[in-house]
Write a structure and sequence with these properties.
There is one protein chain. With 239 residues, the chain is mainly α. It is built from eleven helices and two strands, in the order ααααββααααααα. The protein folds into two domains: 76 residues, Winged helix-like DNA-binding domain superfamily/Winged helix DNA-binding domain (Arc Repressor Mutant, subunit A, Orthogonal Bundle); 146 residues, Four Helix Bundle (Hemerythrin (Met), subunit A) (Up-down Bundle). A two-stranded antiparallel ribbon has the order 1-2. Helix 5 crosses helix 7. The N terminus and C terminus are likely disordered.
Length: 239
């Protein structure tokens, strides 16, 4: 049974928004919850999302649902299809390549600057995220792994102290979280190992090593995402 809107467990603000925040409009609460359910794969790619169904899921009227659907359509999380209405988007190869082309510019730059500016406290917090991700990976808690993956990347951007990088990457990380979550079971261990290398470079305050680690991580993540898309597009061959 679907649950109504309620305050969420603590998580990355770029993934789940501020559901339950009394300062948010009902539309924004619905929008935050809708994003979260898509990103966390509670609503899977290709799944139909009618206004009536979502209104019942969230315990609200259709009006805020309709407004929230317009926003997530503009963000690329849903598509409007003839005779089907709104369906959760399915990431395709072009979408993946466009997203990773952007990551390949932003993340190495962010890591390079973060290596120069990171404080002891920030690095300690980053190490805790890394340790938590290791534990979640070992436990097979891939929802948590995806949250921590996004939290770590977002933390590196904040460590750079460059507000433009933070601003440009925030919306992107919603999609990164979504894509990672869909293939987290196969990617988690490799991603954690690549993050170890990145964090060690940041702790060494080595901008060149941090930039290289971030670039290699983006390349590996892109390859895994493209492979995942290919598997979804050819189920008969895989199966």
């Amino acid at each position: 049974m679907s649950r109504p809107l309620e305050p969420p467990a603590p998580g990355p603000e770029f993934a789940s928004g501020s559901i339950g925040d009394r300062h948010l409009s009902l539309r924004d609460q619905v929008l935050a919850e809708l994003r979260t359910r898509i990103i966390d794969a509670q609503y899977r790619p290709g799944e139909r999302l009618t206004e009536d169904r979502l209104a019942a899921d969230f315990g609200v009227s259709r009006n805020p649902v309709r407004e929230a659907l317009r926003v997530v359509e503009a963000e690329g999380f849903i598509e409007l299809q003839p005779r089907r209405g709104a369906v959760v988007a399915t990431p395709d190869e072009r979408t993946m390549r466009d997203m990773f082309a952007t990551r390949a510019v932003l993340e190495p730059l962010g890591a390079q600057i973060a290596a120069e500016r990171a404080t002891v406290e920030e690095l300690a917090a980053l190490r805790r995220l890394l340790d938590d991700a290791r534990d979640a990976t070992n436990e097979g808690d891939f929802v948590r792994v995806a949250e921590l993956n996004s939290a770590l990347h977002h933390a590196v951007m904040r460590m750079s102290g460059n507000r433009w990088l933070v601003q440009f990457s925030t919306a992107m990380y919603r999609h990164i979280h979504w894509v990672f979550r869909l293939g987290a079971s196969a990617r988690a261990v490799h991603s954690w190992e690549e993050h170890v290398r990145l964090v060690e470079a940041l702790e060494a305050h080595d901008p060149a090593a941090a930039e290289e680690a971030a670039r290699d991580h983006v390349r590996a993540a892109e390859s895994a995402a493209i492979d995942h898309v290919a598997m979804q597009e050819a189920p008969d061959v895989i199966g």
